[in-house]
Amino acid sequence: MFKLIKDAFPPPKETTREKDKYQLVKRHDRLGRMADTLEYSSVALPLARLNDALVRELEKEAPSMIEYEDEKLVIRHVYIERRMVPLNLFLQNGSDEDIEHGIKEYGDAIKQLIQANIFPGDMLYKNFGVTRHGRVVFYDYDEIEYLTDCNVRRVPPPRNEEDELSGEPWYTVGPYDIFPETYGTFLLGDPRVREAFMRHHADFFDPALWQRHKEQLLRGELADFFPYDRDVRFCVRYPARFGNPGQPDAQASARAA
Ligand SMILES: Nc1ncnc2c1ncn2[C@@H]1O[C@H](COP(=O)(O)OP(=O)(O)O)[C@@H](O)[C@H]1O
Ligand SMILES: [Mg+2]
After folding, report:
1. What angle do CA 19, 73, 59 make, to 5 degrees?
2. I need a surface site. Which of 175, 180, 196, 224 has the fewest CB within 10 A?
């Protein structure tokens, strides 16, 4: 997957900010839950191999990023990342088991990210991918913030009937305010998805979960993350050599709880 940063964004996005976010992810523990990117400059591709519509799109959206040389298109700056199946498509086309798996993974991914101080920002399913190994990974970094910079808020009760019926929020929202109770509106539209979500991750919509992780981080506590199954850990496979299998995991889950 090749990713270019567009020349212009509709406000409030800014390109300079977006580059910083890629740098942030590059330096941060990605926990096996954020795709790593390889940053390239001056990537020359034979024009004959590129679809016309793609070239026109690049000229329209990112003219400052491309130039031509002989029969080649040269991309000045591009991030390259592994290709996955976007989670929205995976869920749309999936069997009940796929949905169950995808949603459990999605919730686990975000819970781990926030414990590692990454608030993903744009949590729509299309911003997550499913790897060949069935792992759900986040890949849209534009709106990432540190969880410790965010204000976790509950939705204030409506003051009157007008508030209650309003399609817009009736409360003021600061740039770093987050409202976990509202996430259901874009995550639970599909009944099959909703059922799996509520079974595995009903606590996702409770601001207390987010606040607890934020406070843990502020106290300097960091959970352990294993980007692979517990069953393949050495302490499970070779208990005699690597100690009591129950021990390290029990500690980790005590910290995570
Ligand atoms: N690594 C990837 N593998 C497969 N599809 C991807 C990948 N990264 C992005 N996409 C697809 O491209 C779309 C836009 O990418 P994204 O990184 O979210 O950029 P944007 O900032 O434009 O939303 C995604 O919604 C998804 O459909
Ligand atoms: Mg996106």
Report:
1. 65
2. 175
